[in-house]
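RECORD TYPE: inverse folding
INPUT: structure tokens
STRUCTURE:
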């Protein structure tokens, strides 16, 4: 009987771990050509939601301008308050990393720049800012998913690259949409990411997001950058599809 219990525990343990984790993978297209891929993982760890991601150019995209970015954020799940943010950028010949700690009503920022794409440090900078409700980009995206349900339009606060931003959004409709990961019914949201940042991927214009109505994750994105526009489609969903709904709406 003890052996049977142990066997069942080992069998069900991976399922219970998956119930606290969600991974979404997208492929980005320029016209009909795949140029980049990105995956985002959301994982509940105690009272925290840990979000991690990577994005990299593929095929033709890598030949034009190489991009390899990755990062993570630690967020207090109950009220979507940021705790930590890290982001590493390699875009063309530009390479840097940023690390934020949100603590004691302050944001402690450490930024490291490298000589082109080498590991040689060009300079390191440390700064402290007051924290007054402007979260990191990962947290801000979750606030957008949540707020777009409750309010048809509004403004999302965000802190990035030493600046505070007010990012307007507006829900413009609902659509049934088919992507490689399946068929979804989505809320269509226009977002204007008026963010001035360093590197090649500087956003421009008005972005359009198709956010799945029940489970609150994007299934399609039309994104505009200085280098041009791309269309990102959800390719794969792994783990607990309900995770964001459980976290953002307290349902589960």
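DESIGNED SEQUENCE:
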């Amino acid at each position: 009987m003890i052996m049977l219990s142990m066997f069942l525990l080992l069998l069900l343990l991976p399922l219970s771990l998956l119930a606290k984790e969600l991974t979404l993978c997208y492929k980005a297209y320029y016209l009909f050509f795949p140029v980049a891929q990105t995956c985002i993982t959301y994982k509940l760890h105690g009272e925290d939601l840990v979000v991690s991601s990577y994005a990299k150019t593929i095929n033709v995209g890598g030949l034009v301008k190489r991009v390899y970015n990755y990062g993570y954020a630690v967020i207090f799940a109950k009220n979507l308050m940021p705790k930590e943010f890290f982001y590493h950028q390699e875009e063309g010949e530009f390479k840097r990393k940023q690390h934020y700690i949100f603590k004691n009503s302050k944001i402690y920022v450490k930024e490291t720049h490298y000589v082109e794409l080498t590991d040689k440090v060009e300079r390191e900078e440390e700064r402290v800012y007051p924290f007054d409700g402007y979260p990191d980009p990962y947290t801000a995206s979750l606030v957008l998913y949540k707020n777009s349900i409750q309010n048809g339009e509004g403004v999302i606060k965000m802190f990035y690259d030493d600046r505070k931003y007010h990012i307007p959004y507006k829900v413009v409709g609902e659509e049934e949409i088919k992507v490689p990961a399946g068929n979804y019914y989505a809320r269509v949201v226009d977002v204007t990411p008026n963010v001035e940042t360093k590197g090649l991927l500087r956003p421009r214009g008005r972005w359009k997001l198709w956010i799945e109505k029940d489970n609150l994750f994007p299934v399609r994105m039309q994104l505009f950058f200085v280098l041009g526009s791309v269309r990102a489609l959800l390719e794969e969903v792994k783990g607990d599809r309900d995770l964001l709904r459980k976290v953002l709406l307290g349902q589960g």
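NOTES: The chain has one domain: 21-249.
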